[in-house]
Amino acid sequence: MYVRNAWYVTAWSSEVTREPVRRTVCEIPVVLFRRRDGSTVALEDRCPHRGYPLSAGRLVDDAIECGYHGFTFGCDGVCTRVPAQDIIPRRTFVRAFPVVEKDGWIWIWTGDKDGADLAKVPDTHWMTDPEWATVTHSFPFACRANLIHDNLLDLTHESFIHLSTVGDDYIYQHDITVVVDGDVVSADRLMPGVAAPPLYASTMGLDGLWDRFHCTEFHAPSFHVLHSGITGQGRPREEGYLIKVMNGITPIDAHTSHYYYAFSRNFGVHDQGATDALVEGLRTVLQEDADALALQEIGMQTRPPGEFDVLIAQDAGVAKARKVMQRLLRAEQGDRAVADLEPATP
Amino acid sequence: MRLLLRSPAADLDPYDPGSEVEIAASPDTRARRPWEWDVRLTHRPEGLSRAFDGAGLGRHHVDVRVRPDVIDADLRTLDIERATTLDRDEKELWVLVVETGRLRQGRFELAPGDVLVCEGDDPLALDVAPSDGGRVSLAVVSLRRVDGQTLRWVP
Fold first, then answer.
1. ipTM value of the model?
2. Which residues of A touch B8 (CB under 8 A)?
3. Does domain B2-145 have CATH number 2.60.120.1030?
């Protein structure tokens, strides 16, 4: 069900300290903490002794001590101490995950350690670029991760779910271009000569007509960068008011996900009022998505076997992304891994 | 709707004569509807086809298979030497494969081996041009329904 040889956002940098913190990624319990030098460690959050979560323990220098019977593990997952005896049994180790900390995100690789490919960590440089201002949110979503991927790859829902913020009728009236390049699927929409949507109009103080655009760039299996903005009619996108929305979608289990969200803008960078308005406005957008997808998850769970999605042309990005995900799963885990998945097309 | 596939032939196994890459098909879940047509990249053409060679992708074919009682197909080649507009009938689906040269289409540049599928009513007029002043050779597959209805497709 989960692509394993991949990077998943597991926490914000600000969430990881010298106090252990627990996360669940693709049904794997993970404990995160920092070494004394500030670097991040990610271990499987289950003591091999009798299954107690290491996150309920404490740090001793750069090691983590289980809070139940004191088994102690180094940053490499190797047990260094069993208080009740001198001999450490051979099976007394926990899995240590490759970790990348970049631009305020903490990623772990859940697959074969030797395959951890740093080049596959998506670009998020806007987060730390002084030319951009960023707002972040974290949201639990009561739905499977694939519904969030579908939601981001088909933004026509903005016209119905997000009426008070980013939605307008003209969105679904404009067609898309889908680009597939390896494991990256992009769904691009240009909306020429339109009014700026409410959230942007109030934040940017704009009126008149603009060329609006958005392009969801899905880096399978877990991360989307939404390149969005408005620009003068007929003008290049790069000249406009630009927004980069970064979406780390991390499966917790088959029916819940964690959504790490970052919204970076290149206008009003030092405008605190704009930032405050965006914090609230974007929280509204995310809550609207969370509410909608929770209802959809119920629909998916109660749908009879043999009944499938009826996809339309605007779902082209959704359909191609599903195919990419199936390809990744099949290559990694064989045909059985995709046997029960929703077929890509009707 | 436009679907741009970057170098799909890179997924062909040059050492497996049975290797193929599906560009577009209807349906691609055969268990649920009768098969009507597909466009593939393959070493073993079975239908209307054109051979490709070079561009670092090895020799392979664009191959078009149809149920002739449902779908009409044709395959032609175009040489693009200057900016031009390709007009597509709304009822047709097109698959364009860049053989040689680099093609500008809107804000996208297509390299040899890239494939562009156009369906529906947007866009009907494709403005294209060589992006480097050279010449672009395109293979164009056109599909249409025998019954005159619009050929709709979701990838």
1. 0.90
2. 180
3. yes
